[in-house]
Amino acid sequence: MTPAPYLTDVFDRPMTNLRLSVTDRCNLRCQYCMPEEDYLWLPREDLLTFEEMNTLVGLFAELGVEKIRLTGGEPLLRRDLPLLIRMLATNPRLNDLALTTNGVLLADQAADLFAAGLHRVTISLDTLRPDRFTALTRRTTHARVLQGIEAARAVGFKGLKLDTVAMQGYNDDELIDLIEYGKQVDAEVRFIEYMDVGGATHWRMDKVLTRADILGTLSHHYGPITPLNENSRAPAERLMLPDKTVFGIIASTTAPFCRSCDRSRLTADGMWYLCLYATDGLDLRQPLRAGASPEALKSLVTRTWQGRTDRGAEERKALERNGVRGALVQLEGLRQDPHLEMHTRGG
Ligand code: SAM
Ligand code: SF4
Ligand code: SF4
Question: pTM here?
Answer without folding.
Answer: 0.96
